[in-house]
Amino acid sequence: MKPVFKFNNNEYYHIYNRGVDKRLVFLDKYDYDRFLKSVEHFNSIKPIGSLYELSFGGETAKLHKKLVHIIAYCLNQNHYHLILQQKSIGGISEFMKRLGGGYTWYFNNKHERSGVLFQGTFKSKHITSNEYLLYLSAYVNLNFKVHKLPLGGETAKYVSSWDEYTRTKNGLCATDIIKEQFQNEKEYIAFANGALKNMLEQKEMKKELEKLLLE
After folding, report:
1. What would be the CATH architecture of the domain defined by 12-214?
2. Which pTM value belongs to this model?
3. Alpha-carbon distance 28 to 68, whole Å?
């Protein structure tokens, strides 16, 4: 019997998870940097060593076919969001297993703790239309604004791929999938900010509804 795979090649998925017991999983800029380096390093169809081994001349994922394309990301202090496109069979599952295990090992070693770091298996939602993909790109890129997180250099409470979409800059993301649908970066920024306004209005309406139901 052939194995059944949850994710399909060339399809897009919203991947997210948060810290166990809602704990913080990114405590400083080095934690954010480490997670993003892991995103890049573990994205290889060929098994490769740890980031520690890479520092001694190990292989880099840049040399090999990718498991996934990174479309957008946002790392907040206690949770993360990713939009991934699977490029190899079983790619998302393998990529997330490496990413979760590698980052948990780093975090526990650095912060002198043990046990699980994230709340169970990562969550996923299949992105079934282009309209939904565009909307989610805004949601993920601007997720820090959805949560109204403050700006702040060394003490930043988030890291996002927003800059990769709004500036001419190479990075982790395959931005052309989204950006080629807009005439220029200015048009995408206008779209994303409009979507954000809608998100915040819906969030406020939900709060008001919940308050009414409790009264």
Report:
1. 2-Layer Sandwich (3.30)
2. 0.86
3. 27
